[in-house]
Amino acid sequence: MVQLICQHLSLGYDGHEILHNLYFKINAGDYLCIVGENGSGKSTLMKTILGLQAPLSGKIVTGDGLRKNEIGYLPQQTLVQRDFPASVWEVVLSGCQNRQGLRPFYNVEEKRLAHENIEKMGLSSLTDRCYRELSGGQQQRVLLARALCATKKMLLLDEPVSGLDPVVTEEMYCLIESINREDGITVVMITHDIHAALKYANRILHIGESVFIGSKEAYMKSKFSDGFAGQGGVR
Amino acid sequence: MNGWEKLILYFQYPFVRYALIVGVLIALCSSLLGVTLVLKRFSFIGDGLSHVAFGAMAIAAVFGMTNEMPLVLVVTIVSAVLLLRTGQNAKIKGDAAVAMISVGALAIGYLLMNLFAKSSNLSGDVCSTLFGSTSILTLTQTEVWLCVLLSVVVTAIFVLFYHKIFAVTFDEGFAKATGTNAGLYNLMIAVVVAVVIVLAMNLVGSLLISALVIFPALSAMRVFKSFRAVTICSAVLSVCCAFVGILISIVGGTPVGSTIVAVDIAAFGGFSGAGIILGGMKK
Ligand SMILES: Nc1ncnc2c1ncn2[C@@H]1O[C@H](COP(=O)(O)OP(=O)(O)OP(=O)(O)O)[C@@H](O)[C@H]1O
Ligand SMILES: [Mg+2]
């Protein structure tokens, strides 16, 4: 089942084009990794998929009944004001916002979900701490927990493991894999960790000068894996 | 006659009770909105919008309108919406945008008045937008009821949309991306802010409204670290400060607005101290 089609998408800022005529589909249950150099437009593509930014041309069509409030998102950076008073609990719970509709308060089910994701991220001891007083890696885990709360069908992650220590990184990959395999949630992940991309993803989107989209196996055989992911291909 | 007897005596007069009710309610509304405004970097929106309202009054005067209130309200709401709705993608951000609109409106308004106005009492008009055209001690019963109604509506909106306001204020991009109608909620916040500011401006003046927006929120942020605690604390603090300020001003015969602000400043000092001590204890 196709959940999302990007049709002849051109992306850019202020009329300046970064990506030209991109066409690809995302199927339900996919684990798609987006790779490419710094500044190649990966984050821009993700923001466009989420509707945070208008494409220069082309459009994004959703299928299979995918609605906007069924998507979880982890931004690459969150510009949270330095003095914003917000506890870890409040931040994670705000991920359930899209389940709430017009109901003014969170119900038991949503609070349970938030607790569950806090536990999954190993944040139980930090629940009442102030978000801005956490370390970078801890903040990243809080935002991941929030993204998980918002996820029902699709999860978009922009460099989820940046700033995490090796142990937590490994845990994170396992967690994302289990979300994908067991809960059947579509995962779209931007990463520079080509080893992980080749280990976990079933499809790869490589963007840059020229674009590649296809299965992991096809990617390893293609010319793209030579230069950019040389070491990855050897393994 | 000691202070207590003086208070009892004064409370026999309805205008004293009205002043107390209106002062406390406006303090409540502005402190509820204050937390969001301070965090969105719109601390000075009270000042900015009051200058816009002044500009609108000037235009109304030029066209010889008798009832300027509707025009002022509409122009102010539109400005508030333009300012607040632009959100995180704006090219000109928070404080700079407010400063631009406020200075611009003030200049244009003053220019228009100079060119066309029949009234020669310019400084008087400017002054009344800054310190309130109707003094808080000369309120009519209708104004009091209007204020009560408004406060109930504002508080209800705030409580009902509390979680959405938090989500939109904390991370607008995430809220939008995951299907929350951030634009709509920003619009709602903007309209409520504009209505509160226009009405409060007439009653207590824009200087006081800015103080009521800024001080309780900043004081609460010294001590508390969660959004909920900060919101509750700033509401309680603002109400207490307004209450105490009005009592002092009645007994001491000091100007009401300035006294409330002075009490707010004292509270801010106290909370800063408490924040430092609490911070020190944790380490
Ligand atoms: N707000 C913006 N305004 C104008 N240009 C931008 C803006 N954000 C990004 N760009 C430009 O768009 C290009 C793509 O940026 P993008 O953030 O999508 O890269 P990326 O692939 O995510 O890079 P990275 O691997 O470093 O995260 C860059 O050349 C950047 O300079
Ligand atoms: Mg990026």
The greatest interface here is: A-B, 40 and 30 residues
Please give the domain count of chain B. Answer: 1
The total of beta strands of chain B comes to 0
Through-space gap between termini of chain A = 32 Å
Helix content of chain A: 25-40%
Question: Which regions of chain A contain 5 or more consecutive residues with pLDDT less than 50?
Answer: 231-235
Helix content of chain B: over 70%
Q: Could you tell me the strand content of chain B as a percent range?
A: under 5%
Q: Taking Cα atoms only, what radius of gyration of chain B do you get, to the nearest Å?
A: 19 Å
- What CATH architecture label of chain B applies? Orthogonal Bundle
Please outline the major beta sheet of chain B. Answer: none
How many β-strand runs of chain A?
A: 9
Tell me the number of helical segments of chain B per DSSP (H or I, 4 or more residues long): 13
How many helical stretches of chain A? 10
Q: Indicate the radius of gyration of chain A in whole angstroms.
A: 18 Å
Describe the structure.
The complex is a heterodimer of chains A (235) and B (283). By secondary structure, chain A is of the alpha/beta class. In chain A, β6, α6 and β7 form a beta-alpha-beta unit. The two termini of chain A are 32 Å apart. By secondary structure, chain B is mainly α. Chain B is globular and about 60 Å long. Bound molecules: adenosine-5'-triphosphate (ATP) and magnesium ion. Adenosine-5'-triphosphate (ATP) binds next to α1 of chain A. Magnesium ion (MG) binds next to α1 of chain A.
